[in-house]
């Protein structure tokens, strides 16, 4: 049975009479619903909810988006992301920002038996700053390359929550490095992505932050051999990006 959080009529945003692409709240509301739609799709899959029992579709249909493609983990088969297509609102209008044709949404960690192992391994990758070696990142960056090459960098947005925020942030940085920045919406990114050393002025505190980080990494490495973990994932690294800058 679906929880209230997964049911759009209980947990969805209030109606927006006239969606305004210039309104940050409207845009954030849209992309957060798409991310929640990814969470709910995976819950639908795990609980075998199909047809009228499925709870995912209203999360994107509310904004007149359609599901274009699911992004699945190659190891556990879980749905960790999706590409959503803007059905009617991607045309540029006067005095408005350019709406996206497509939005890539990425969920965070789900601690269920079906997804916990792969999700936790990716969170450990974040701590060791090698998230880019995971198969999910490779798939996400390849999807971004495709849409940017086909429609331009303003036509694709990316959004993520928690673990998904880490993937989205890394993918956005890589695209920007190659002259193709995309609009990104990051919700509750992993704390290891926050530059804590830059947020404190005391040298003693900076040393404490570095020490705590190194101890954490060493402790995890003793429990889990990351070399073995990396062999489970796609280790091709970041595929070559050849795109025309905007």
Describe this structure in words.
With 246 residues, the chain is of the alpha/beta class. It has a single domain, classed as 3-Layer(aba) Sandwich (Rossmann fold), CATH 3.40.50. Helices cover 43% and strands 13% of the residues. It has helices spanning 8-11, 24-46, 58-61, 116-127, 135-151, 163-177, 196-199, 203-223, 226-232; strands at residues 65-72, 79-86, 102-106, 156-161, 183-187. Strands 1-2-3-4-5 form a 5-stranded mixed beta sheet, sandwiched between helices. Helix 5 (135-151) packs across helix 6 (163-177). One of its GO terms (molecular function) is hydrolase activity. Pfam families: Lipase_3. Keywords: Hydrolase. This is Fungal lipase-like domain.
Descriptive keywords:
246 residues; alpha/beta; Rossmann fold; five-stranded mixed sheet; Fungal_lipase-type
How would you sum up this structure in a few lines?
This protein is an alpha/beta fold and 246 residues long. The chain contains nine helices and five strands; from the N terminus they run αααβββααβαβααα. A five-stranded mixed sheet has the order 1-2-3-4-5, with helices on both faces.
Instruction: Pick out the low-confidence regions.
Output: 194-200, 215-246
How many E strands?
5
Note the total helix count.
Answer: 9
Examine the coordinates and then state which fold CATH places here, giving the name of the CATH topology.
Answer: Rossmann fold
Distance between the termini: 47 Å
């Amino acid at each position: 049975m679906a929880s209230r959080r997964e049911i759009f009529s209980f947990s969805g945003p209030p109606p927006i009479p006239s969606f305004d692409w210039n309104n940050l709240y409207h845009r954030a509301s849209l992309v957060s619903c798409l991310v929640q739609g990814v969470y709910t799709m995976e819950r639908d899959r795990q609980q075998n909810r199909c047809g009228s029992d499925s709870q995912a579709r209203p999360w994107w249909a509310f904004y007149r988006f359609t599901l274009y493609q699911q992004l699945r983990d190659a190891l556990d088969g879980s749905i960790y992301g999706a590409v959503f297509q803007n059905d009617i609102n991607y045309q540029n209008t006067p005095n408005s920002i350019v709406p996206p044709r497509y939005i890539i949404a990425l969920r965070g960690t789900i601690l269920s038996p079906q997804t916990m192992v792969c999700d936790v391994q990716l969170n450990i990758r974040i701590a060791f700053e090698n998230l880019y070696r995971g198969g999910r990142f490779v798939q996400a960056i390849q999807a971004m390359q495709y849409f940017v090459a086909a429609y331009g960098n303003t036509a694709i947005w990316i959004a993520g929550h928690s673990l998904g925020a880490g993937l989205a942030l890394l993918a956005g940085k890589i695209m920007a490095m190659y002259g193709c920045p995309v609009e990104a919406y990051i919700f509750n990114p992993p704390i290891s992505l926050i530059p804590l050393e830059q947020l404190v002025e005391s040298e003693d505190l900076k040393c404490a932050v570095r020490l705590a980080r190194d101890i954490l990494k060493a402790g995890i490495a003793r429990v889990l051999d990351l070399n073995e973990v990396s062999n489970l994932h796609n280790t091709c690294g970041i595929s070559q990006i050849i795109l025309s800058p905007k």
